Amino acid sequence: MSDFSDLVQMSQQLIADTDVPRMKRNLQQINDSTLRLAARAPTGSQDNVDVKAAILLGSRGFDTGKVSQKLETLSSAKTFEPLEPVRDTDIQGFLRNERENALLAVIEQARKNTFEESERRHWDTMESEWEREKQKILNALVVSGQEPFDFSQESESVLGNSISMQGRSTLDSVEMAYSRQVYVYNDKVVQGGIKPSLVKLFSEVVAKSDDQNVQELWRMVEAMTDVPLSPSGSLVKARNSPNMQASFVQQAMKYLQQIYVQYLRNTVYSHLQQAQLGGIPGTFNLVRSFLNVHLQNVVIAGLEGGRIDGHPGWAVIYYCMRCGDLEAAQQAVNSVLQHLGDFPRYFLEYCSSEDGRLNTQSEREVRLLYRRSIRNCTDPFKKAVYCIIGKCDPRDDHSEVASSTEDYLWIKLGQVTFEDNDGSSDKLSLSQLQTLLLEEFGEAHFSAYQQPFLYFRILFLTGQFEAAVEFLSRIERLRCHAVHVAIALYELNLLLQPYTVQAQLLSKESAESKDDSLRRLNFARLIMMYTRKFSVTDPREALQYFYFLREKKTSQGDNLFTSCVSELVLETREFDMLLGQLAKDGSRRPGALDKFKLDTQGIIETVANDTESKGLYEDAVRLYDLAKKYDKVLSLCSKLLSEVVSQPPAPQSNKDRRKQLALSIAQRYKEVGAEANPAVSSTFHLLLDLTTFFDLYHGGKHEQAYKVIQELNLLPFKLQDVDNKVKAFQNFSHEIRQNLPDVLLTTMNIIYSQYKTTKGSATQSPLTRHMDGGKQTFINYLRVQARSLITFAGMLPFRLPGDTNARLVQLEVLMN
Amino acid sequence: MFLLQVLWWRTAASIGWTVLLSPVFITLTSFIASFDFLRPWTWLSSLLGILSGSVISGLSFHISCMTLLVTFMALLFAPHHSVRLVTPASRLQYILSVINMRRAVLYSTVTTGSALLGWQFASILTNSSLTYHSSELGSAVLNERHLFLVLFAGAVGLAFSTSFFMHNMNVIHFPIVQQAKYFRVRSCLLAMCVNSAMSSLKLLPYFFLAYYLILGQSMKDFTKFMFFCHEDPSSVVLNSIWGILNLSLAYQTWLCGCLTHILLSLPNLLHKVYHSEQFQFPIETNVEMYSNKCLHHALAADQHPHLLYLGHLDLYLLASQQPLRRTLIYNLTQLGGHALNWAQLSKVCLQRLEVLQQMLAAFNQRTIASAPLRQPSGGGNDLIVTDISHSAFMNGSTPGNESKSKPLTLSSKLRNLRFVKFFLDERPELSSRALFVDAQCHIWTVNALSHLASASFREDKYGVMQKSLASILEIMLLLQESLEKHLKLGLGSNGNLSRASSAVGCANTADCQTVHAAVKSALYRIVETFGKHLDSVELSTEQRRKIRMYVEYKE
Question: Per the database entry, which stretches of residues form a coiled coil (chain A) (predicted)?
Answer without folding.
Answer: none
